[in-house]
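Hey, sorry to bother you again with one of my protein questions. A protein chain has come my way and I'm curious about its shape. I'm sending you its amino acid sequence along with the C-alpha cells. I owe you a coffee for this, so here goes:
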Amino acid sequence: MPPYLRLLTATTVLAGSMLAAPTATAEVEPGGWTSYSPGFTVQERGCGQVNDLTFQLTCSTTSGDQRAERRYATYSSGSRQFEGYFRITSMAGTRISLKQTFNESGSGPFFMLAVERGGRLYRVGGDTIESGAAPVGTTVRVNTVHVVGSAHRTYINGSQRHSMSSPGGSFYDKFGSYRTDSGAGPITTQWSGIRFWRK
C-alpha cells in the first residue's frame, strides 16, 4: 500500500475512535470521575404510574404509599454523582419527593429533594434548597454528589444549594414522584438526561 494511503487509513481509524470514545466528564465537581450505568427497578404503588421517564401520581389521597419511581442499584463505598433533568408538566398536589438518596442500612431515606406547589425545592425534614426553582413547565437540572461516610451535596442548575454530612453504609438513588407524609398528588413529572459517575 502506498505511504499516503497508509497515512489516510490510520488517520481515518484514529478519527473514528476519537468520535466513539465515551465521555466521563461530570457536570459538577469535575476530576477523576468514571461514567457508569447502574441497573434499576421500577416501583409503582398506590396511584403511581411509570411510563419510561414519566412519573405520575394520579390521585389526591393524603394517606398510603403513593409512588412512581426508579430505584437504582445499591452502593456502599467511594464517591457517586447523579445527574438528571426534571420538568413538572402538571401539579395540583404539593410536597412531592422527586429525588432520594436512600440509606439501605436501616435509617431509610437519607436525603429527599421535594417540591411544593409553586416550585419551592426543599429537603424533607430540613430547609429550603431553592425558592421558586421548579414551577410547572420549567426544566431543572439536579446533581447530587455523595461521598459515602463523609458528605452529600446537592446542586441545582449547576450551583451548590445544600450540603450535609453522610454516615457510612449502603445507599441507592431513586427518582420519580413520591408522596411525602405531608403531601398529596396529583402530579406528572418528566425526567431526562440521567447519568451516573463514580470514583
Observations:
- The chain has one domain: 23-198.
- Residues 23-198 form a domain with the Jelly Rolls fold (CATH 2.60.120.200).
